[in-house]
Amino acid sequence: MEYEEVVRSRRSIRGYLDKPVPKELIEEILEIAMRAPTSLNTQPWNFYVVAGKVLDKIREGNVERNLAGVPHSREFRLGPDYAGEHRERQIGIAKQLFAVMGIERHDKEARMDWVLRGFRQFDAPVSIVITYDKSIQGSDVAPFDCGGVVNCLVNTAWSKGLGCVINSQGIMQSPVVREHAGIADDQVIQTCVAMGWPDPDFPANSVVSTRKSVAEAATFRGFDD
Fold first, then answer.
1. Could you tell me the pTM of the whole model?
2. Is residue 115 within 8 Å of residue 101, measured between CB atoms?
3. Tens-digit pLDDT profile for the chain (225 aa)?
4. Which among 59, 51, 53 has a CA at the least distance from the CA of 197?
5. Distance between CA 57 and CA 63 in Å, rounded?
6. How many CA atoms lie within 13 A of 118 on its CB side?
7. Is-contact 5 188, C-beta < 8 A?
8. What DSSP string describes the chain?
9. Rounded to the nearest 5 degrees, what angle is found at the Cα of 186, between the Cα atoms of 67 and 47?
10. DSSP notation for 32-51
């Protein structure tokens, strides 16, 4: 695909085929993704790629601890709850997803099942946990760079026929992730990306989120017109 087609057609994938992703393909995707811009060429990112029984243990631990009421231990700052237009956009995508999945507002069981899918990293065959070096923790530059490489990662995967969803629910219980993924103590867990072959019959995979217009987002100064 041409670059513009990749960017315009990519969407978050929340349902996957029960089909493994070759390690060699993931390596190729990561090699391309790591061409992402990075401040002063610091390249703070590291990737812990998990699948199979290792990923199953992370799913199980994440679900069990969350259902038991163990407070989340995500290692990035969450900040205040969304409000105003940000909250409206959050609600908007949830409505789109629930509509195509047939989840009614009053259906608590179906809503909980959807939440659990997030804890299980949407049952994807692969999860890539993105970390950065703890030695540079405290600056916003490293998380910014990690965001850049994740953007390149999901777009590159899409160009290869794979789908992804960036999913911080999958790392809510960081001790579980650290233990089973073998994440070193000198790393900060930033986020994770679920990856796999998109299931064409999974309704939520048809959802394309809306974007605000350039006119809403951009301010131009100093142009002739």
1. 0.95
2. no
3. 799 999 999 999 999 999 999 999 999 999 999 999 999 999 999 999 999 999 999 999 999 999 999 999 999 988 899 999 999 999 999 999 999 999 998 999 999 999 999 999 999 999 999 999 999 999 999 999 999 999 999 999 999 999 999 999 999 999 999 999 999 999 999 999 999 999 999 999 999 999 999 999 999 999 987
4. 51
5. 10
6. 16
7. no
8. --HHHHHHH--B---B-S----HHHHHHHHHHHTTS--GGG---EEEEEEEHHHHHHHHHHHHHHHHTTPPP--SS---SPP-HHHHHHHHHHHHHHHHHHT--TT-HHHHHHHHHHHHTGGG-SEEEEEEEEGGGTT-SHHHHHHHHHHHHHHHHHHHTT-EEEE-GGGGSSHHHHHHHHT--TTEEEEEEEEEE-B-TT-GGGG-------HHHH----S---
9. 70
10. HHTTS--GGG---EEEEEEE
Specify the amino acid at residue 17. L
Paired tokens of 198: 């998109």
Q: How far apart are CA 154 and CA 118, in angstroms?
A: 17
